[in-house]
Amino acid sequence: MASELCKTISVARLEKHKNLFLNYRNLHHFPLELLKDEGLQYLERLYMKRNSLTSLPENLAQKLPNLVELYLHSNNIVVVPEAIGSLVKLQCLDLSDNALEIVCPEIGRLRALRHLRLANNQLQFLPPEVGDLKELQTLDISTNRLLTLPERLHMCLSLQYLTVDRNRLWYVPRHLCQLPSLNELSMAGNRLAFLPLDLGRSRELQYVYVDNNIHLKGLPSYLYNKVIGCSGCGAPIQVSEVKLLSFSSGQRTVFLPAEVKAIGTEHDHVLPLQELAMRRLYHTYHSLLKGRPLLVLWLTAAPPSVCRLLTC
């Protein structure tokens, strides 16, 4: 296996390959053959999925200076090292399904990065330097242990797809509404109790998924004309305990949804809206105008409903 690996890397070096596939090799360490001498100067895409890597070499950028895409899906990497920040041409970084606990602040130096995938790890927070990724278009941080989102995330002006499903988020920062390019936002399976009122105001945002947030009982009005996923939100309604309201017209009776609950009974007296308004006006100005001629003039011009109120 080792000889075959060395041969594969040697051929890639001699023939100046731009793509190198080292998936499913049961690698526990980064191959030394990749790092010896000048490395692979022409390599642009490195695939090392489903191995057993636990770390990345500090001289990775020195040996692979032209790397554009790095796929490390399904390994055992615990820390994204500082050296990652030196891969200045990197546009795609996939570290999904690892054991990540820490992402170093130097990740903010990847100014060309467009796609960052950190799903299914052990992350409790992300560094604020993520906000320095001005070209970032896709960020997948689903299935982690995040309590909050990066405080400067709204500075990722190119961000189009944000996935934070299955974390421990209690709220969504209002500054997230400032993302000008965001088209799809998925926050399913968190602990959200409310959403910012401005969420959905942007015309670019078209898809919002908040499924299975059991504490979430309402949506901002701006989301009503978007594509929404919200199944499993709010406490379930026990229809058997709710008196269904209805209204009738002729021989037809229409029942209202179970969510519309009765207030009081059908025998309770409800004042007309005009009368409620007039009563409020009367009590507001009564103390100011009491005993003054102006009150008499105002009453002579008032509608009959107000006059009836004064005699109550």
Automatic annotation (TrEMBL):
Residue ranges of domain Disease resistance R13L4/SHOC-2-like LRR in the record: 105-189
InterPro entries the record matches: Leu-rich_rpt (IPR001611), Leu-rich_rpt_typical-subtyp (IPR003591), LRR_dom_sf (IPR032675), LRR_domain-containing (IPR050216), LRR_R13L4/SHOC2-like (IPR055414)
The answer on whether this UniProt entry bears the keyword Metal-binding reads no
One Pfam short name: LRR_8
Superkingdom of origin organism: Eukaryota
* Keywords from the UniProt entry: Leucine-rich repeat, Repeat
Instruction: State what protein this is by name.
Output: LRRC28 isoform 9
Tell me what organism the protein belongs to: Pan troglodytes (Chimpanzee)
